[in-house]
Amino acid sequence: MPEQQHVLLDGSKRPHPTGSAPLAKAVDPEEEIAVTVSLRDAGKNEHPERRRADAEKVKESLGRYGLRVTDERLEVGSIEMKGKAKDLNTAFQTELKLYHGERQGEFRGREGELGIPADLDGIVAGVFGLDKRRVARRKVFPGSGDHGSFTPADLEEQYQFPEGAGEGQKIVTLEFNGALFDDDIDIFCQNHGLNTPAVEVVPVGYIPPRSLQELKQLPLQARRLAFEVAGEVMMDVEILIGLCPEADISVYFAEWDQKGWIDLLDRVILEKPVSVSISYGLAEDHPDWSLLGLTEINKRLAGAAAKGITVCISSGDDGSGDQMDDHDCHVDFPSSSPHTLSVGGTVIVSPGVEKSWWVSPGDRRGGGGATGGGVSDVFKRPAWQTVQVDSLNPGAIKGRVVPDVAALAGPPFYDLTFAGGSQPNGGTSASAPLWAALVARVNALLPASKQQRFLTPLLYRTGTDGTPLGRHICRDIDTGHDNASFPFPGRGYKVRSGYDAVTGFGVPVGVELLKALETV
User: Fold this and answer.
1) Which candidate, 325, 191, 289, 206, places its Cα nearest to that of 255?
2) Which of 38, 103, 278, 432 is a plausible cystine mate for 314, CB 3.0–4.6 Å?
3) E strands, 323-398, in order
4) Could you give the CA distance from residue 77 to residue 417 in angstroms, rounded to a whole number?
5) Is 199 exposed, middle or buried (0-12, 13-18, 19+ CB in 10 A)?
6) Quick one: which of 378, 370, 434, 362 has its CA closest to 405?
């Protein structure tokens, strides 16, 4: 093993994993582990010659520790490598350990900062995959059939979708763990008079079971986790199929950790879909994120936006607290990134009439739920976001405000199929794929010069009448509860006329979105 000087990798510090305890047994030193090495300026490729030189330097330097390349994604600045646990410990100056958490079970992790060989200082921006702690919480809110759940046709009418079925459009939904049941897709399509489409499944470090029978073959802990998330996966996919039955729909699957986020978004940039649906996240200041994780994920979201990809992400289902038990308000990441379309939630009171979604105590752990929203403490407000909403946290920065828009999250919920039967569902997990489907439906009808544009900044662009586009293409939601969660923080952002940090500009009017994008 070479004797090389190392330097600290800024932003790589990880605390003890929350809600977990260390195990007495050690990580097998011979275990083969995959990591993703993120190069400087990831997410874009402005200097391809330098990128190739950086990659060669990384392969040479880390190759001295026995690491080998398994995949290169130089356009986005990532190199996947494998090596033995003992060699990774040495290469990155860390100690991999085993932990056990109530929800995640046994997993590998680390604490403290990483080191990298000194000759990679300024070249390597991040190393992901050593720590497998979960940083993706699903945003699903179980519904019931008592309210007459909404079918795809109901949703099209409620939100005035333009004609078409998403022909020629590529939509991607990102999933973490879980399963995809082909039989449920068949039943859902039969129930709604749709032809069953060929949904592409893309494993990105995780191979999902495709039936209940396959799922039952998994070890107990893996089976429990996969089934828990499978309902989320099926909801995302069925909403996309129901609203865009002729689109090219792909489902990317990865593990729960930061590496999973990086690898999924790399492939999004390379594939260049029109829209992406993501129904997962975690409070942006949750201690299980590393600063590097936020930074490198955000770089890839920026790379996607630069390619005209609208990444639709649920704003969260736990109100202003986002399951952080302190006295501050919190927003969810990646929804809080300026490079996404953040989607909040509503309740349909009657046809064409909605209010903000809030069920006491505004937090799912207490049996309720509420649309996430607020002001970021991490990401500055982009110049294009010309709205006046102040953070409720004392001394906070003028941060990015979320959500941008909203759609149905609560009653009457969505008419869906799971495990062979009817299972209405909702949450902002459902709002996000609805918007992803709408973006694709609209894009299919636009002239070529107006297609494939990142939607979010356009919503805030002021028209000749002095009002932002979002006011014209959305129906304002000016009634309903604020998004306070209890007991923490016990306060929230108010619903008001015009833009607010609960439902953004409001819910979509699809035909107006099409009309606006034809001219802007």
Assistant:
1) 206
2) 432
3) 332-333, 341-350, 353-356, 358-359, 369-370, 374-380
4) 39
5) middle
6) 434
